[in-house]
Amino acid sequence: MIDKKNILGKFNKIEDKMLVTRIIDKAAQAEKSWIAACSDFLDPYQRKTIESALHGVKDVEYKFDGGYKEAERTIVIFSPEQMSNHPSLSDYLTLLEIKLKTERYLSHRDYLGALMGLGIKREKIGDIIVDERSCSIIVLKDVADYILYNLNKIGHINVYTRLGKLENLEISVPRTKEIKCTVPSLRLDCIVSNGFTISRSKVAPLFSSGRVYLNWEPEDSLSAQVKEGDTVSVKGKGRVVIDEIGGTTRKGRIAVILKKLI
To answer: Which among 204, 114, 107 is positioned nearest to 158, based on CA atoms?
Structure first.
């Protein structure tokens, strides 16, 4: 039997406890009913949290999957050990293919905004793979039909939405914009200011309102230090990856190369 109280004792943050509670309830449901269950999509930080919570849990099997091997966002599927036929990924996830009816390029943010504009919650949406004039989106099966019949425009651009097959998914290299800059220090607020072209005076409110994330974890400290490979996100503005940290200029500033997803 899953020891929920002991598991929750590992975590201090309210948000982590709430997340773990939801996921553990899914595991307990599978254990009790002998029927497989799955979570909503988890970002990498949430997945790491759940992996820690589930470490050592017995009586229920689980696996993380996002529709393809390198998926960033994943669900966790619980299946009781007693089940003879384990669930298929296609029982929970499906692929939607969106084609633009014009010669335009839309960004990850455009597609995500259109889906959320339909009232779809972010946790129902997995990875969004953007290509020229098209996009593949992995979603939970329970929202697929709603999106299929209601997503016909993104902004002013008409689109055609259809069901695809996960096994036919082709992953393209994400489009990025390189940003070369120099910063006085490797503080997070310096990276946010340069990566998203925001004046230093307007950066602090982003932190205080909980819109800044470092490696998918909410970060409220402007002075938090960053390193190569870190991912910095600002809700509503996208994300940048710290691709390279170089040497120091004559004026004592640090050269940094950022890659911004577009």
So the answer is: 114
